[in-house]
Amino acid sequence: MRQSKLFTKTRNTAPKDAVSASHKYLIQGGFADMLMAGVYTYLPLGYRVIKNISNIIREEMDKTGAQEMLMPALQPKGIWDETGRWESLEEIMYQFKDRSGKDAGLGATHEEVIYDIVRRNINSYKDLPFAIYQIQNKFRNELRAKGGLMRGREFMMKDLYSFHISQEDLDEYYNEMINVYKRVYERCGLEAKVVEASGGVFTKKYSHEFQIIAEAGEDDIIYCTKCDFAQNTEIAKSKAGDACPKCGENLKQGKSIEAGNIFQFGDQYAKDMNGYASNKDGEKKPIFMASYGIGISRLVATIVEIYNDDKGIIWPESVAPFKAHLISLNKNEEAEVIYDKLVKAGVDVLYDDRDSSAGEKFSDADLLGIPYRLVISKKTGDQIEVKKRNEENSEILSIDEVMGLIQK
To answer: Which PANTHER family match (predicted)?
Structure first.
C-alpha cells in the first residue's frame, strides 16, 4: 500500500474528549472515525487490525471444531418473551416497532436466536455436543458510551455457543474454552487473567471474565501474582493485602479491561424455550448451553492501551495493520525497487512515498506504530536503515538481511 493513496490521514491533534491512549491514538492515527458517541467507522488501517484479530480468533475457534455462521441483528420480540429478557434487557436493548406495528429489537446478544434454531434442528444426543460461532456487530444502549472503542453502542463481537446433552459434558468444553481464550489473547500480545464474576444482566449464574490489567480499565479486580486466583470486586470477599485463598500470597487490586467473558446457562434455556433431545435410552433430556464472547473492537483498543508510548501506538506483529513501514527520504527510485521486492516476497508493507518532510514521516511512523521502520536515504546508499518500533536503536542492513529479519 502506498501511503500517498491511503484513504485516511493522520491528525496533528488528538480528539478533545479523548481520555485514554487508545481513544487518542486510534482517532489521531486514522484507524477509526466517530459518527456519534459509541458508534465508530473502522477505517482502512483499523479494519486491517480488526481482520488480523478476527483471523486469530477464527483459527482458534475452528481448532475446537466450532462452525462459523451469521445470525440476523434484527430480531422479533417473541423469542425474547420466552426467556423474559425482552423486559430484563430493556435498558440496554434497542427496541422499537416496525411499520406493521410489530415489536422488534437489535441484537444485544444472540442466545435466543441460536437456541430457537437448535431446538428446531437437534433431536438426539447423536447430534451433540456441537458449537457454533459468529463475528457480527452487536447493539447496546450504553449509558456511558465514552472512551473510544472501549465501550460502544455498536461494536464488533465474536460470540460462540456450545450445546451439550449433560452438565458434565458442558463443563468439559467450558474448561477447554478457557484455555482457547487464553491462547487468543496471548497471540494478540496480551496477558489475560481469568476472573470469577457475576453473570450481570445476561444470566443469573456466575461467569468468567478475561481481564487485562490496565489503568484505563473500568473494572476492579482482586488477583494473585503467584497463582491464577482472580475475582471481580463486585463478588470478591477478599481485599488487597489479604492472603490468597489458593496459595497464601498477598492479594493485589488493580484496574482492568474486560476483553471477553463466558457464561454457563446450563438447562435454563431448555426450560424457557423447550429445547430437549433424546439420550441413548430414548429419554427426553434438556439441551445444555453456554455462551462465549470476545469484543473484537474493544480488543483493538485494549491492545493500544497496553502497547503505546508518548509518540503513538506500538502494535504487536500479530495484529499490526502492516508488518513494515518503508520510508523514502528523497530516494523514491531506490525505494520503489525495495518496495517491489517486499511486495513480491509477500511482506505486508506500507510505503511512505509522500512528498513530505523527514520529520513528518517519522512522526507519522511513530504514531501508526507499524513494527518495522525501513528508511531509504542518501545515508543508507544501497542498504536500508531498520528500526523496530519498540526499540531505540537502528541498524543498516542489506535487502536480503531485511527479508530474513521480517519473514522469520
So the answer is: MITOCHONDRIAL RIBOSOME PROTEIN L39/PROLYL-TRNA LIGASE FAMILY MEMBER (PTHR42753), PROLINE--TRNA LIGASE (PTHR42753:SF2)
Q: Is the pLDDT of residue 203 over 90?
A: no
In 192-307, where do the E strands start and end? Answer: 193-197, 207-213, 219-223, 230-232, 252-266, 276-278, 284-286, 288-295
Q: Whole-angstrom Cα distance, residue 117 to residue 89?
A: 21
Question: Residue 383 and residue 367: Cα distance in Å, rounded?
Answer: 25
Question: The C-alpha cell of 270 is what?
Answer: 431448555
Span(s) in the chain for CATH 3.40.50.800? 322-407
Domain 322-407: CATH architecture, name and number where available: 3-Layer(aba) Sandwich (3.40)
CA-to-CA separations, 254 to 90, 146, 195, 240, 367, in angstroms, rounded: 31, 21, 12, 9, 28
- Enter the C-alpha cell of residue 193: 487473567
298-323 residues labelled b (16+ CB within 10 A) or e (exposed): bbbbbbbbbbbeeebbbbbeebbbbb
Which residues, 6 or more positions from 78, have their beta carbon under 8 angstroms from its beta carbon? none
- Residues 244-266 have pLDDT tens digits of 999 999 999 999 999 999 999 99
Task: Report the chain's mean pLDDT, rounded to a whole number.
Answer: 95
Nearest to 148 by CA among 259, 25, 11: 25
201: pLDDT confidence band, cut at 50, 70 and 90?
low
**Which DSSP string corresponds to 133-183?**
EEEEEEE---TT--SGGGS-SEEEEEEEEEEESSHHHHHHHHHHHHHHHHH
Q: What CATH architecture applies to the domain 3-309? A: 2-Layer Sandwich (3.30)
Average pLDDT over residues 260-284: 96
Q: Is 116 exposed, middle or buried (0-12, 13-18, 19+ CB in 10 A)?
A: buried
What distance in Å separates the CA atoms of residue 326 and residue 8, rounded to the nearest whole number?
18
**Which of 105-109, 202-206, 342-346 comes out lowest in average pLDDT?**
202-206
pLDDT tens digits, one per residue of 137-150: 999 998 877 778 88
